[in-house]
Amino acid sequence: MLGRTRAVALVGLVGHLVDVESHLAPSLPAFTLVGLPDASLAEARDRVRAAVTSSGLAWPTRRITVNLSPATLPKTGSSFDLAVAVATLAGAGLAEPSSVAGWVHLGELGLDGRLRPVRGVLPSVAAAVAAGHPRIVVPRGNAAEARLVPGADVLAADSLGEVAAHHGADVEVPDVEPVRDVVTAVPVRSAPDLADVLGQDEARYGLEVAAAGGHHLLMVGPPGAGKTMLAARLPGLLPDLDEADAVEVTAVHSVAGTFDPGGGLVRRPPFEDPHHTATPASIVGGGSGLPRPGAASRAHRGVLFLDEAPEFTSAVLQTLRQPLEHGELVLHRAAGTARYPARFQLVLAANPCPCGHATGKGLACTCRPEQRRRYFGKLSGPLLDRVDLQLEVPPARAADAAGEGTATVAHRVVAARAAQRDRWRSTGWRTNAEVPGRQLHARLGADRALVGDLERAVDRGTLSLRGADRVLRVAWTVADLAGRAAPRREDVAHALVLRTRGHGA
Q1: TM spans, by residue (predicted)?
Q2: 285: how many CB neighbours lie within 10 A of its CB?
Q3: pTM for this structure?
Q4: In terms of Cα–Cα distance, which of 73, 58, 56, 60 is closest to 22?
């Protein structure tokens, strides 16, 4: 007496199809679950037994062994409950085995037999469809999310009894209130307008360059200069996500439990601004068993803003070096390895010293020299070397006037990004920030005068070789915003000023 169905195990964002086999033997009653289940999945035995009896179905008085294959793949979470239950019912002859075997089942069971929504439905359904199994049963609370996957044949159910009846079980379908929204969606915030920022022409231009080329940005200035206001307006300058990016970003938020399926796919670049007390696990991902996405992955294809960056612990800041370089996070834990995309734009804001008044002549500053060094020393050289734009933001003045609004600047950003997309179309890169330095130099041709300022800055120690490549990326973006096909020497010089906060240029 054997019942079979399928479920999906998520490792990071990658879904693996799992065969759920339930074998019933004429022996003393027992229920064994094998196949590397974690603690929450091992508890499915009690949830399934209670849900079956609460649904008006007879629990088989046999020795039940449920195998989750492949047995070498770690399996976590409660989304296997429904698959374990229907496979057991099929093995007991209470449901039609051929019908059960033709569907993928996802969902957590309550003790009363109701189906509860689970995380990660979007990547799970996408994996099932890609593997050739488009018929999927999900809790009604996950139905809108599951139907976002093209080609999926989704059956939404409120209870185990409803699913069992669909598979031919002789059971009265109970009238239950559906369980909805176990996740807490991040509220969608309207992007503030750049016209709200008074003055700060250089910082505004730096923000435009960052948006146009996908560059990382550091702003240093006294309290009240407008650093946080500028950072909050960066997502509004970015273009909408294309279809592939929207699916990937939505999948991350689905696994993280911050996705609201009512609005469809995530189409706007996300914005994450964790507090400076955040732990490394909350930034890069963590949790028991296989790690879940952190703020860096939730900011994928968007903006990760660290306000008062030197107040973050060194451990948090150093964990960002891998995603800044590779665009993904690889998290190794005892239960396995998870990969999450993390190609975000990093925006750092910092005061020049702990008191914030070491600007200009610094006469109002009360900090000792060692306090200043220790404060800004949190932003290590290897981290700052990966930040393309490093700007001084001076104190705001009462006479400063408002500048252009978000819509006007965003129009130029879209045009610059279109130029980059056309230039790198055959390579797979989409923004200048992604292009290796070797390719940028090759595009410049043999005229060494263009990079003479960069070479002298490297010789003086103002720039590293990595920094010189990043200046060249910014120079290409400056040229794109100006409508030029390639950067001129003045574009390289301008990019060098934007990189070095006006020093050493």
Answers
A1: none
A2: 26
A3: 0.88
A4: 60
